[in-house]
Amino acid sequence: MLALPFSIVPSILWLLFFVHQDKHREKMKDVVKVFFWGIIIALPVVLVEVGFQEYVFAPFAALIFSELAYSFIGISFVEEFAKYLVVRFRAMPYKFFDEPQDAMVYMIASALGFSAIENFVYALNFAGSASEVLQISIFRGVSATFLHVVASGTLGYFLALALETPKERRKFFWVGLALATLLHGVYNNFLMDLGHKILNTQDTGGLFGALTIATLLIISGIIIIIGINKLTRIRFSTQSNTTTQNYEQK
């Protein structure tokens, strides 16, 4: 019973924090809508990930880089693209999506919704007691949850650039998606091992892991905040407004 509130609270706290970084603050009902769509998209994402694992990567399981490729493509890429689809269809077509920084704000909202349900499932599977639920929730609240923010926030920044410069829209979008996938994949493959050491307190590697994760996340968080603040100083140009209007619906 404790898994659900403990898993969702970190995402809500991060959501409130980043919404308040936006100087032209969005209506909470719009942000919450995208947040819940981030939760909903998690189910089809699981099905796609299982499909990739069973039918695409399983035949190559004996190859040395098969597991690594699945982690980057079958998990990281799929999840980042899914969170983008939430924004593409549940934010961009609407009139409230009217400023460059909205791309970052709503990508982060989508990411936090996705992370909330991911943390809930993780706690159900790996926590055997209330104290373990709390421990996992705290750790993932400041690591995995924030990783989703950093990766999707990065994509959101490049999405804003893509909308602002329609002639280079594809380039900026794919660069952003590639960077988001890379960040996500690096966390999944390298930092998660450090995280397990922290949770299990196996050795002094746990302390090193904690310091590494904390340093990387602090630096990444500062970059995300700078990105939001930078985008708040510009408005969509007439040309980019035409681009966003192509998505609009009433």
Write a structural description.
The protein has 250 residues and is mostly helical. The protein has one domain (3-245). It is built from ten helices and no strands. It has helices spanning 3-19, 28-40, 42-57, 66-90, 101-126, 130-142, 144-164, 169-200, 205-232, 238-245. Helix 3 packs antiparallel against helix 4 and helix 7 packs parallel to helix 9 (205-232). The longest helix has 32 residues, at 169-200. The radius of gyration is 18 Å and the shape is globular. The mean pLDDT is 82.
Would you summarize the structure shown here?
By secondary structure, the chain is mainly α.
**Overall form:** globular
Order of helices and strands: HHHHHHHHHH
Number of strands: 0
Oligomer: single chain
Largest β-sheet summary = none
Count of helical stretches: 10
Write down the Rg: 18 Å
* Residues in helices, as a percent range: over 70%
Distance between the ends:
40 Å
Pfam families: PrsW-protease
Organism: Candidatus Spechtbacteria bacterium RIFCSPLOWO2_02_FULL_38_8
Main location: membrane
Family: Belongs to the protease PrsW family.
